[in-house]
Amino acid sequence: MEKHRSSPAAAPATRSPGRRTYLMCRPAYYAVEYAINPWMDTTAPVDATLACTQWEALADAYTALGHEVVRIEPEPGLPDMVYSANGAFVVDGIAYGASFRYPERRPEADAHEKWYRTSGWKYAEPEFINEGEGDFTYLPGRELILAGWGFRTDARAHAEAADVFGRPVVSLRLVDPRYYHLDTALAPLDDERIAYYPEAFAPGSRLLLERLFPDAVIADAEDAAGFGLNFVSDGRNVVINAEASGFAKKLRDAGYETVPVDLSELKKGGGSVKCCTAELRR
């Protein structure tokens, strides 16, 4: 595993890495058979074998960092099931289930519900459309949930999530269709700090982020287009799409260590590191 360290002069991250548990789904049936986001092109060839190889490299990167990877079995006819982050949002042992906007993905919700229930998680059925960790993230140090809306998740799901978890939810409106999920435009670096791409958000949401997170690491257009914000961090180590090399340097300059993983095939479906990774929080 290639790992890039921050310079000795960089400030340390506020959270030490701890062992985490991630839910992943091997892209056994991965394909781009329909287009529901701007990254999907049904005329572009997809190498499913390469996608599986790249996915295995991602899973190996997590285990090499000391984290646990558990797997949900892929199902035929669900080519996007590899993006396991979209199946639920999990905090305090409660899985708030997904309800997908597009009919092509709706059966994934049933597969995830079955997995969470049979794996012993408390499962909260959703009333409103939401796409799991695609549009929700959690900052334990602030006991704060950040939630996106504008393209996929119904804004009413934010109040529903607040009721499920008993935690405050900050609603953020997304305005660029290329960044249709919150996790393509924003991600936590540790318990309290985030990185984000300002232009993906409506002016009011941008101002809110500036006020809440004055120490955020800011991405530019090139960083975002390389899916640099679709990363997974354990508080020190940031697993990031290899294409986003410029943003990786910004993260190292901010005191984090980066682990680049090439997910070029999975990007063709509109996802990268975070999309393939659901964090299971007890």
From TrEMBL:
Xref: Gene3D superfamilies: L-arginine/glycine Amidinotransferase, Chain A
Annotated TM spans: none
GO MF annotation, one: arginine deiminase activity
Biological processes, Gene Ontology terms: L-arginine deiminase pathway
Protein name, UniProt field: Amidinotransferase
Organism the protein comes from: Glycomyces luteolus
